Every structure is written in structure tokens, then in C-alpha cells.
Amino acid sequence: MPDRGQVDPAAQGQGSVTPSGALTRLESALAEASGAGDVDEIARAVLADLALLPGVCRVGLALTEGGGRRLRFTSGPDAGDPLPDQPEWCHIDAYDDVPLTDVVRTGRPIHAELATLEERWPWLVEQERERGGSVLAVVPLPGTGSPIGGLLVVLETTPDRGAAGPDLLEAAARRTAEAIADVRSRRSRDLAEELAETEAAAEPGARTASLRLPPEPTAPRRARAFLSEELQTWGVGEEIVETAQLCLSEVVTNAVNHAHTVADVRLSLLEGVLTVLVRDRGAQGDVVEPTREEDPLAVYGRGLMLVEALTDRWGSERDAGGTTVWFALDLDRRADDLAEEWGQERGEQPDEPA
């Protein structure tokens, strides 16, 4: 892949390429980055190629993460500065009131002069004016049922027809979303294969169990009962069982409420680590399109805040086939923590380090 950081920074925003030329360059770069499974290269392609459009001051890209609880955001450098070798990402909470979360939540793009946004986002208007901007464009990256992120572009002036206008930016957003979805889909398949290989190669003492849940209101209760019965059979402590039940119930409830399809639950206990995985088939079933009252960012948001707080590790991937959410509990570490807490309650002093 060509080094996109070598584009002449002085050409940024000076119309060094035509709009159609920029889109063609972007399509080629996205195809190559997607084939390599590299989200960072996708981001660099977007930041570099859209910055070459006439009148562009700044380009930013945000992707949903953590089951929709937050956005992962990166932006290009100011005009005249080179693009870094690796994008510098930061996080935006899904409930922060900023243009990107508004667009990802509602699915509606923003194309407006900064002056019209000053009352709601005065700090943003001041920041972008200092960079020479006067127009803000934010478009959603379309996904299955809800956006998977957003594309932000700050312009010097209202773009002429055919320049960095709504049609071109929405086309760029569609192509970017397709590339991101392709990478995520392949990562999800790789994860499923890795878990299958782990089960196949499990040591004799490893335990596994699975259950298919119907898309019914009773699914969370059935999932809790299944998990409790299996873990008690495996000799897992009551406190771990209760924590796992609570987290599983949150994940299954979200799957039932939003995917409306069967959900597969898989438990695995290997080398002192309990892993719980839930996979729905949202993209294959009758997905309910988000309404104005729904918050696509919160589909797996509030429940996963609890999962994140109670577990040692967790992850979430959404692809063309549905959503996979998993979490892990380290039984040995938690047993040590409980023993230490119990000792402190009895007034025992921890051992001095050797």
C-alpha cells in the first residue's frame, strides 16, 4: 500500500485532486486496507484522501466500540502537518453531547454553518473557527440497523456542488462503512474459529456447555437457570455463579430485545477462567429498524456497562450475521481476592513481600 503520509501536506485542502479523483483513490485504499484487515490503514486512507478535497480544514473518523457504549475517534492533522504513521485514537462516551454522537444516535447527517451550531456547541465552533473552518459536515457510517460510526469534515466555506458536498461525503461514508464491516466480520469469524479450536484442543479437565435460546421473554430466565446448573455441577463458587448470572442476563436481555432472533449461549471453563459467549442472529432475522425514540448507540450500552464493571475481560463484535458478546471471569484471581478480603475482615495482616 502506498505511504499516504507522504502526500504533500501543503496540498491539503487546496484542491490538489478532484472530488471524483479523491473518491477513486479512497475506494482503492479502502479495498487494500480491508483486505489486510487493518482498521488503522482504513482510517489513514480516509484522513489522507478527504483532506485533499477543496476547502477541507479537518477530517475525523469515529467508530462505535464497546458494544456501542462509546466512540473511538481519530482525526487528521492541521493543514500543513504530515499524517502520523499510526492514527492517534481517543474515546468519546456515547452519551456525551457532541455532533458525532448525535449523528450516530439518530442516523441523521449534519451539514451546517458553524454559526448555526454556536448555541448548542459553542466550544466546538470556537475550536474549528480557529482552524479556519466555517462549515461542519458529519455523516453516519451506515450499518446493519444502526450506524457503526461517523465521518466528520470541517470546511472553509460551503462547498460548491460536486466538491466536498453531502453526496460525495455520504458516498465516502458508505465505502468506509463497507470496509470497516468487512474487517469486523472477518475478525468475528476468526474469533469463532479460535474458540472452536480452543474447545477442540481443550485439556481433559476443560468443561464446555451450550444452549440455544428462543427469541422469547423467558430467554434471560432460562439462560440464568442453565448457567447456574452447569456451574454448580462444575464446582464453581456461589459468588462467581451470581456474577456470571447477572452479566449473562444483561447480555441475553439485550439480544432478545434488539435482535429478536435465537441466541446461542456457550460456557467454557478452562485453566481457571470461565468464558461466557452469546451470539445472536440479528442480521438474519427480522431486525427492528431504530425509531427516533430508540438510541442505536445504547443497544448494548447500559447492560455492557455492568458487564464491563463486573468481569475481568469482555468483548463485542457486530457483523453481517449478528452480534457476539463474551465475557470472562478469572476464578483463581477472584478466589485470592476473596481470601484477602476475608483475612482483612478478621483483622489479619497481609504477608510482607519477600
TrEMBL record:
This is Unannotated protein. Residues 214-327 form the Histidine kinase/HSP90-like ATPase domain. Pfam families: HATPase_c_2. Keywords: Kinase, Serine/threonine-protein kinase, Transferase. One of its GO terms (molecular function) is protein serine/threonine kinase activity. The keyword Ion transport does not apply. Residues 1-20, 197-218 are annotated as: Disordered. Gene3D superfamilies: 3.30.450.40, Histidine kinase-like ATPase, C-terminal domain (3.30.565.10). It comes from freshwater metagenome. InterPro entries: Anti-sigma-factor_SerPK, GAF-like_dom_sf, HATPase_C_sf, HATPase_dom.
